[in-house]
Amino acid sequence: MRVPRYLVVSTLIVMVLAALVVAAPVKLVFWHMEARPHRVQAIEELCKQFNREYPDIEIVPQVQSWGEIYQVAPAAIQARRGPDFMLTIPDFLMFIKNLGVLQPVTDIVESLKQKYTLFDSAIEPYHFDGNYWAVPVYGMTFVLWYRKDLFEKAGLDPNRPPRTWDELLDFCEKIKKSGTVQYPIAVPGAVHMATDQLIYSLMVVNRAEHIFGEDPNDVIFDNPRTVQVYEFYKKLFSYSPPGSANWAWDEPRTALFTGRVAMVMEKGHYIKGWVDNTELPLSLLGCAPIPVPEDGQPGAIYYSNGLMLLTNDPAKKEAFAKFVSWLYQPKVMSKLLHMDPGFFLPVTKEVQFSDEFWSNPIIKEKVAAVLIQIETAKNGKLFGFTRDAVNKNVGSISASNLLAWTAQLITVRGLNANEAVKQGAQKMREAIK
Amino acid sequence: MRRTYSNLLRDPIFGLLLVTPMLLWLTFTLMIPMIDAFRISFTSVRYLGAPGVFVGLSNFKRVLADPEFWQSVVHTLSWTVVNTAIQFLGSIGVAIVLNQEFWGKNIVRNWIILPWVLPTIVLAIVWKWILDPSHGIVNHILFSFGLVDKPVEFLSSPRYALLTAVLINCWRWTPYFAVIVLAALQTVPRELYEAATIDGASRLKNFMHVTVPSISSVLKVVLLNSFLWSANIFDTIWLLTRGGPLSSTTTMPIYIYSKAFRNFRFGEAAAASVLMFLFLGVLAVLYLTKVLREEELK
Questions:
Q1: A143-300+400-432 has which CATH code?
Q2: Does residue A353 belong to the interface with chain B, where contact is any CB pair within 8 Å?
């Protein structure tokens, strides 16, 4: 029997097309918000490396900005143009979860846990409703940065930074009196995440880390320990340059780097910032844990950035699992963390103790500063994520910067800490309604 | 052929065809989003893209009962009225000066639009540094001349922040309107001034009875644009103060943005947008009706 030619041709076409479909790599669009050029480049290089090693998968990184992601992501998801997976922080994750596209990644996290020791503070904020919702990749925390040269000029021991709240105020007074600089410390005061993070760091060290009670709808922000924090913040603010009520991230950093202030409390990006923006030796930049009040505890704000999956396509989920598993190898993860050395902290013990992580020249030079951050991170907390149950509208509190708003009631309107905290709590209750 | 073309131009269907692309564009980019915002204002949507249920007028009630909304209305009125007044009068003044003959006139005419050409983010950063209480040049000068004994917190004090933002916005927009007024001034025939001067008119009378009537239609447009644009300004204020300190520079656009993207209450933000639209729409319609009636009377 002779097979008709058209049948042969069409069968061949179908087979070729099927082969092409089978051979086409699984494409995953990856959104991240690390928009600084050196970080963009580092992430692109890592994705390229993965794509080379796994030709059946193609990761396509796309840069977004933290400034607009709350508007861009929902619009893109609604228009079905969203990413397959993206970078997140815990409260942004809650925001995305409300859109109904977030996929649990419990199986992926469990398999990673069998191979690596993940730090609790990094993974716990992503664990609620019986599932893990993101895979943490790096963490960041707050420390005290200070100018050793200015300490010396003021007659202070540059290797003995302040350890307690009283000492910190005492150092401010001494630096001011010495005339070394007019304003000893830069304290952000704008209604901005920078102010939120500083205040929450002070709340953590003063054991006031819980914003909610055991019931995630019960706001317990107005308590005596929080009031103490705001009283202390007010005192510190009086040592900060005029105009600090409008300061966020850049101004304190510039003030420290130019030697106009001697101290700032901020995250680890000061290390690379110092290298890139000053001609001064890195040894002049001192680092210390956030000073602690008398009956306080060590710590600060800490949050990990994680990867969350937004597609329920099984092939894509499998590809995502492969990517994450590849990324978690200490030598690969170290490369990612080196995109801003000293800022991005490991989330696993294996990376923390790997030679690759410590091999970076900047990290090598600031070993003590990185270790201080890693230790701080272990006791780190994030507001709204300190209990097992999480309020699904916690993003409203952080996006409205209500900790900073409460601070402005004191610094701008002149209320006392007690009254300001009461109003802050009321505002939080309204925000999560 | 010529006749056919002329007939075609008079044909209303042809006219409709010509404006159709623009109407379609406006429908997709303006009308549909506006209708959707109107729909959202009656729902309980918290996040863009999240589902919401019909809640009737409760978003409007909540917005109207919010003291911050009324504070933003007051700020919007002060911001808009002061901006419009300064930009309107300033642009006339600048245009009159630029209409004179003086050395370097062309250079000044070209350079004056620089503030308007600058991206908002650039001017915001520049002005923030210029006015910074500890590093800024303005405070340095004030100190040097002994005019102040402590730094002036231009953008971080509720007392000065709104006024400072107004002045920065005027610095930006006045040159733009000045160029428009200047173009109108150049169309006024010289003979009119000569005739008025021969009749004994003073400079002020020349201005009031020759210049103003000759360019009145342009001035009306400038006034309307300046008012509407000022009321809608978001970027300059946001980049300078983010509506602070403590809502002291929160105008209606900032209030709406904060409600939508900081408090995640899209329904309420949409309700506030509808209220702002009605407020501006009514004012614009009243103004245009008045202007058109005057034109008809002429």
A1: 3.40.190.10
A2: no
